[in-house]
Structures are given as C-alpha cells and as structure tokens.
UniProtKB/TrEMBL annotation:
Belongs to the FPP/GGPP synthase family. The keyword Magnesium applies. The gene is ispA. Coiled coil: none annotated. PROSITE patterns: POLYPRENYL_SYNTHASE_2. SUPFAM superfamilies: Terpenoid synthases. The keyword Transferase applies. This is Geranyltranstransferase (=farnesyldiphosphate synthase). The lineage of its organism: Bacteria, Pseudomonadati, Pseudomonadota, Gammaproteobacteria, Candidatus Competibacteraceae. Its cofactor is Mg(2+).
Length: 295
C-alpha cells in the first residue's frame, strides 16, 4: 500500500517536472535540452517524494505540493550537474548515463545548472496551484534559498572540498553533511508541510527533527554504498571517496559502526513521528528505506 503510494508520487513528480521544464525546442534549445537531460534522466526522487509525504502527513493537497516538489528537485539536479564537473568530483556517470557535462559539454552543463537553480525559485514564486499566503510563500523561498546556499548545500560542498586528505571528528563530519546533504532534505520536508495553509508549529517541529535525522542517515548510507555498493545498481562508479581521500563515516566508524549510526538516526526519526497517525505512513516507510537502501 505505502510502496504503491511512493511510486505514485514518483510518477506524479516526473510529470510535473516535465510540465515545468522549458520545452526542448524552445530557444535556446541546446540549453533547454541540457536542463531536461539532467532532470528527466532518472534518479530516486527522494526529495520531491519527501515533499509529498510531509505534505500528505499534515493534510496538504497533491496539487499544492507539485510546485515545491519540482523546486527541490531542480535544486538537487543543479547541484549534481556541478558536483560531477571536473573541477569537483569529476564523475563520468550519473544514473547509469553519461553525466551532463559528458553528454552536453562542460560549458553548457554549467549553464544548465545555473538555469535550474533559477527555475526552482521561479516555480515557488509563480506556481498557480500553491494556495499559501504571500507570507508563507516568502518563508518557503527563504527556506529553499538557505538550504541551497553557503549556509546549506553549497557551504557543505565547500567544507567537503577543504576536508580532502584530512581526518575529521564525528562532530565535524556531521556538521559537513548537515549542510551538504541534510539541508535540502530538511527543506523538502518543511516545504511539504508548509504547503498546507494552516499547518501548526506543533507539527512542524517534529517533522523538522525527522528531516535532520534522515538527512544524516541518507549520507551515511551513501558513504556505505560507495564501499559495498554494486556499480550497476548504483548507476555510477564506487570507491570514489577513497580515491579522492575524502573523510567518510565508514572510514571514521568502520562499516558496522556506520550502519549502526544510520539505524540509530532512523529510529530517532521514527520516534519524532509518534504524534502522527497513519497519514505519516509514507514518511515512516522512507525512514526505513533511506537507512537500508541498495542504491
């Protein structure tokens, strides 16, 4: 039942993304083709699914959630384009396909990432189905901007670059990933919840804690999969973290320790949903999935 709902969210956001992306034949066509290549080429869609799951948990309509779901995925896609560039992680594959800069050229890939970042905020500003007040919409814009910027994802990436070759403490490693990975996951949950016009702070606070926990658990599992994952299943090469001498949870805690830390965070996330009923079933399913996923 829940897995069927998750798949429905995945199908829904794919359609919503297609509708909100510029058409490939709209000038400048090369840029719009690169944007569509980066966004529609696959992926788990965890962040937009979290938007739908959190919004559903507080009673938001799916129509009101389509815009925020697309906005977070556009930010995520832009970040992957830039992360894959030669100046960053220098990856050749993403979702089993050539990365955007390999398929479209490095310059066009950079521009596609830039354009997707701008499109995310345009969608939040203009999406007609969002029925929030101007005050709430501004709050949502601020949440996404902070999650994407120097105090969120981009800042975490800068910390990551500066940590290459260094041994970090657990607190330093978690601080890096709270920003690099966790910030956008947290924003996804909050944007979903705020898509209901009368959501209450007593609902937002436990959802925010849930998001912080699964954001870290997601990164820990990513680190584990870079060691033990199947490249065919993952759609990208493994062992990149070790090759680049990056600090990771398995390197710091060992594989068993990293697994246990992820499970502990997953249990903490589930505990934060105690005040929610069956309407938070998708959020509970996602907490389990994030901790145990194979890709």
């Amino acid at each position: 039942m829940i897995e069927t709902m998750i798949e429905q969210y995945r199908v829904r956001v794919a359609q919503a993304l297609d509708q909100r992306l510029p058409a490939a034949d709209l000038h400048p066509g090369d840029l719009h083709q690169a944007m569509r290549y980066a966004v529609l080429g696959g992926g788990k869609r965890i962040r937009p699914i979290l938007v739908y799951a959190a919004g559903t948990a507080v009673g938001a309509t799916l129509e009101a959630l389509d815009g925020p779901a697309c906005a977070v995925e556009f930010i995520h896609a832009y970040s992957l384009i830039h992360d894959d560039l030669p100046a960053m992680d220098n990856d050749d594959l993403r979702h089993g396909q050539p990365t955007c800069h390999k398929a479209c050229g490095e310059a066009l890939a950079i521009l596609a990432g830039d354009a997707l970042q701008a499109l995310a905020f345009q969608v939040l500003c203009q999406d007609a189905a969002m029925n929030q007040s101007p005050t709430i919409r501004l709050r949502m814009l601020g949440i996404l901007a902070q999650a994407a910027g120097s105090r969120g994802m981009v800042g975490g990436q800068a910390i990551d670059l500066g940590a290459v070759g260094r041994e970090l403490s657990l607190a330093e490693l978690e601080n890096m990933h709270i920003h690099k990975t966790g910030a956008l996951i947290r924003a996804s949950v909050l944007l979903g919840a705020l898509s209901h016009p009368t959501v209450e702070s007593t609902q937002l606070e436990p959802l925010d804690h849930y998001a912080k926990c699964i954001g870290l658990a997601f990164q820990i599992r990513d680190d584990i999969l870079d060691v033990i994952g199947d490249p065919t299943t993952l759609g990208k090469a493994t062992g990149a973290d070790r090759a680049l001498d990056k600090p990771t949870y398995p390197a710091l805690l060992g594989l068993d320790g990293a697994r246990e830390h992820a499970r502990s965070l997953g249990q903490d996330a589930l505990a934060s949903l105690a005040s929610f009923g069956a309407e938070a079933g998708a959020l509970r399913w996602l907490a389990h999935y994030i901790v145990e996923r194979a890709y």
